[in-house]
Design a protein that fits this description.
Distance between the termini: 20 Å
Bound molecules: flavin-adenine dinucleotide
Oligomer: single chain
Structural class: alpha+beta
Shape: globular
CATH topology of the largest domain: FAD/NAD(P)-binding domain
Number of domains: 3
Helix content: 25-40%
Largest sheet: 7 strands, mixed
Strand content: 15-25%
Length: 493
């Protein structure tokens, strides 16, 4: 039996593992952590589950290609989704608030009242979102050429809209507003560098109820995928960090684990961090300039520090919604190597399974400097003290903005950019790989490595903008390539 060894049991590695096992390969996943899931993870603190990932999952609605991918991967077994009315609420230092609804008619109505002279921009946005609604960005991975051609033809009508808005950043669009308040609401949809098409598609998915929150959070998705992988005969090796991808005569021939054990393989797929795969796991480093140059041209997502609190489930005046709120600050907060002008705060009130009755987890996410936290990590006392200081600064700001939280917050956990790196190996602590911008959005990276045959890649670094869907899709696409090379038909279910 042809043996496939996969590095990393994140969503991409699990997706590749499930597809490889389904297609008749002897499949082993080697995951360095004690649990699978990578960044798609959650951890327990004082009777609460801190979910470090999923806020919304594209493909939550049955009947489209992304939903079929999740189903085929076993991620949705018994999962119930919740769709929320609001995306995010911007809270200004003076207490003014503006909620960005997931409903475009409501957005037009409410935002239009704030700034009638910006109605043409709101209308432009609403029209683009309405055009994008119901669009299936398929084709289904593995479809024959004629089905793929039909899927492309179906997209022809919206191509001009795509071409127009993938060359405009959200920040550029936001600058066109006369009202600074409305401009800020747009800017705070994720990040201003992202292309406008990303925001348009996201709101189309919200409107179509195709980007819901899965009750139970990240764990249920991962548990479903692990179950599917193991039911197909795949072997998940936990606490099995890979030290090296063995090469002989220009091809990958197996793995060497940190404990020295060797694993022979006919094919290797790496779902681990791309930078580490190319430069640490391969010795000598991969000569592939197509991939190596990405690290010079593409900025990664700025890493995060996250502070988790236990809090009342529905405290008065605290915005909920898909991304919670963005607190704009009157003076910058030093988050360690970075002065931030605001941070987001997301109570998981929508999900009662994550906390004792009447409580929820409130997660503050603050952009933080990679170098700062990476340097500090070896000075353990200082590192802990700085974490505690950041937590108390964040707590004070939350209590000042939301009086109902005063005396009602209990600190559960603090993580830093270094925590992300330590647990998942992601380069510079990035939480979604490379940031998508108007210059790189449409530039998918290859899943092969020049100079190393029989090595395939998957994971969020290979599709700018990252996220769970791209991780899952690249895992499947890697096995599609593998099947082609082995001369086997590819199947998904
Ligand atoms: C706070 C936060 C919120 C997010 N919210 C969303 C959201 O709402 N929706 C969405 O779509 N996406 C979201 N994301 C992004 C999403 O989590 C990631 O893009 C996705 O999980 C990446 O999956 P991956 O498999 O490509 O990589 P990873 O998750 O990084 O997986 C890589 C795996 O490889 C393992 N590994 C690394 N090196 C080795 C080695 N040497 N040996 C063995 N194993 C190794 C790691 O331990 C890890 O398990 C969020 C991320 C964060 C952090």
């Amino acid at each position: 039996m042809t043996r496939v060894a996969i590095v990393g049991g994140g969503i991409a590695g699990l997706s590749a593992g499930i597809c490889a096992a389904l297609n008749g390969f002897e499949t082993h996943i080697f995951e360095k952590h004690s649990i699978a899931g990578g960044l798609c993870t959650a951890w327990d603190r004082k009777g609460h589950v801190i979910d470090g990932c999923v806020h919304w999952l594209v493909g939550s609605k049955p009947g489209n290609s992304m939903h079929r991918i999740w189903e085929d991967l076993g991620a949705l077994d018994g999962v119930k989704f919740v769709d929320q009315d609001e995306y995010v609420t911007i809270v200004q230092p003076d207490g003014r608030r503006l909620a960005f609804p997931c409903n475009m008619d409501r957005m037009y109505e409410e935002f239009g009242k704030i700034s009638p002279e910006d109605r043409h921009l709101l209308d432009e946005f609403r029209r683009a979102v309405n055009k994008a609604r119901g669009i299936d960005l398929g084709p289904d991975i593995g479809d024959p050429w004629w089905k793929r051609s039909l899927a492309v033809l179906a997209l022809l009508g919206i191509m001009p809209m795509f071409m127009r808005y993938d060359r405009v950043s959200v920040g550029d669009f936001a600058k066109r507003f006369k009202s600074r308040e409305l401009g800020l609401a747009f800017e705070h949809f994720f990040l201003p560098e992202m292309p406008m098409i990303f925001m348009i598609m996201s709101f189309a998915w919200f409107m179509d109820k195709n980007a819901g929150y899965p009750l139970g959070g990240s764990r249920v998705l991962v548990d479903g995928m692990v179950k599917k992988f193991e039911s197909l005969g795949g072997k998940l090796h936990r606490r099995a960090p890979v030290k090296r991808i063995e090469q002989r005569d220009g091809r990958a021939v197996g793995l060497v684990l940190e404990d020295g054990s060797e694993v022979a393989a006919d094919w290797v797929i790496s779902g681990a961090d791309l930078h580490a795969t190319l430069n640490d796991l391969l010795d000598p480093p991969a000569p592939d300039q197509r991939l190596q140059s990405l690290f010079e041209t593409n900025p990664p997502f700025e890493p995060l520090a996250m502070v988790a609190f236990s809090m009342p489930r529905f405290p008065e005046g605290v915005p909920l919604g898909v991304a919670g709120s963005v607190l704009r600050l009157d003076k910058p907060l030093d988050s360690g190597g970075k002065q931030v002008e605001g941070f987001s705060f997301h109570p998981f009130s929508v999900d009662p399974t994550l906390a004792p009755e009447g409580r929820t987890v409130g997660l503050a996410m603050v952009e933080a400097g990679w170098e700062y936290w990476n340097d500090l990590k070896d000075r353990k006392d200082e590192y802990q003290a700085r974490k505690a200081e950041l937590a108390s600064q964040v707590q004070a700001l939350l209590e000042q903005r939301f009086p109902s939280l005063r005396g009602n917050l209990e600190l559960l956990d603090v993580s830093t950019p270094w925590t992300f790196r330590r647990y998942t190996g992601n380069w510079r602590g990035s939480y979604e790989g490379f940031l998508a911008n108007k210059d790189n959005y449409r530039k998918p990276s290859p899943l092969t490595v020049q100079g190393v045959d029989r090595l395939l890649l998957c994971g969020h670094w290979l599709r700018n903008g990252g996220g769970l869907p791209t991780a899952a899709m690249t895992g499947m696409e890697a096995v599609l390539l593998l099947c082609k090379r082995e001369g086997r038909p590819f199947k998904r279910r």
